[in-house]
Specification:
Layout: E1 9-12, H1 18-29, H2 35-40, E2 50-54, E3 60-73, E4 76-88, H3 97-111, E5 116-119, E6 133-134, E7 137-144, E8 159-164, H4 167-182, H5 194-201, E9 215-221, E10 224-234, E11 237-238, E12 241-242, E13 244-253, H6 256-266, E14 272-276, H7 285-289, E15 297-302, E16 305-308, H8 311-317, E17 324-331, E18 340-346, E19 352-356, E20 363-366, H9 367-374, H10 380-385, E21 389-391, H11 393-403
Parallel strand pairs: 4-5, 13-14, 17-20
Antiparallel strand pairs: 1-2, 2-3, 3-4, 5-16, 6-16, 7-14, 7-15, 8-9, 9-10, 10-13, 11-12, 17-18, 18-19, 20-21
Helix pairs in contact: 4-5
The structure holds acetyl coenzyme *A (ACO).
Residues 28-29, 83-88, 93-99, 119-123, 125-126, 129 line the site of acetyl coenzyme *A.
EC number: 2.3.1.-
Binding site for acetyl-CoA: 86-88, 94-99
Enzyme class: transferase
Length: 415
Amino acid sequence: MSTLPAGYRTVDVPAERLAEFRGTDQLAFAGTPDPEIEKLLPFPIRQDRLMAVEGPDGAFAAVHGSYDFVMPVPGGEVACSGLTWVAVRPDHRRRGLLTSMIRTHVERSLDRGEPVSALFAAEAAIYGRFGYGSAADDVRLTLPRRAALRPVDGADALTVHLERVDQDRHGELVEDLYVRAGDGRPGWMPRATPALRARTVGDPPAWRHGNEPLLLVTVRDGEEVRGLALFARKESWGESGPDYTVKVRQASALDPAATYRLWSFLLDLDLTTTVETPMLPVDDALLQLLVTPRPSRRRTADNLWVRLLDLPAALTARRYAAPSDVVLEVTDALLPANAGRWRLAVDASGTADVSRTGADADVRLDVRELGALYLGGRSATALAAAGLVHGERTSLDGLTATFGSSLAPVCPWVF
Ligand SMILES: CC(=O)SCCNC(=O)CCNC(=O)[C@H](O)C(C)(C)COP(=O)(O)OP(=O)(O)OC[C@H]1O[C@@H](n2cnc3c(N)ncnc32)[C@H](O)[C@@H]1OP(=O)(O)O
């Protein structure tokens, strides 16, 4: 059902209108057209997953797209429609164009058999109204040079190698280490296409903001790469000498020794005084290794927002941490098929059976909060303390235990 004002219509985006799609996005985000970026980095979204809204003059007034991710979830994975490139021209905003695009997005995602959608929110206040719940946080640390790490056996035997990043040669290696280091962590989206991998290692001059060209450091056990980081230094000279900053784009390690070796290299580069980490999960090994876990600066932010589109398919796609037999009463203003009472029966193996029931509800919540719980990074008990979930304390604690994940969810790159 369209909510568009008169004169507007939803349209596909043919190849010949890709420049107009980009231009609409740039108008909304104050972006600058850059042919060099377009040459170096192929457009990352499949043509058939781009949509636009035409205004009364026939030009694009709003656009959006989605990635076809396979998102890790606790104990499994799920087809996930990664909403992105959402943009409404400033001269067409607050007329319901986003609201209409969200309807298009959820309908098309469901038609493709994608039970879940996820996104990064440009502004955190936008997406809750559409049933997206804040499902993960990330932390970024600013660390002083030589921040000490607790020692790890075996780290001294590892070697480090430094080279400039080569976009053509290094994409596969960087992605391979990234996926293996993720180790099934919920939300850890793979960069499955060549276009996304190109962005991971891409280094167009317009992205550098005064940094040197991107570097790759690998940590090796003999010839085997056990860890790597993408980073660049920013030159700066103060009154008392060099004051460079190390900006780390990605850091991936396969074991504690490689983690130690990688970060001890990044934390003690000559001429530098400050190291900025990439987005890290809230339980990242670096946070455990720091002798003084009080960085110069620690910023915690909302990471993935998750929306259940097909409730039973989404809930059965993941495994659960504890057996359960609970009745959930769910509200969903946008997708009534998800609303009502559902029995979530989890067996000893963590496998769920989800079915409609007429039984009394143990826990009442909106689909937004179910999305927040989905990746295992939120507590039903804590959400209830904020008045967002309702039920007896034993039911809430049980739900918290059932939905929990041993690894905190995060996606360490923005899509
Ligand atoms: C996943 C991503 O791609 S995130 C990127 C989102 N894009 C941007 O931030 C780019 C700049 N901004 C824009 O393009 C637009 O202003 C958008 C997409 C944020 C909103 O588009 P609009 O067409 O104006 O939204 P629409 O008119 O459908 O508003 C729906 C509701 O959301 C609210 N809303 C919209 N944007 C915001 C916001 N930034 N903060 C808080 N509320 C918002 C509206 O007030 C409205 O509320 P109501 O239903 O109570 O009246």
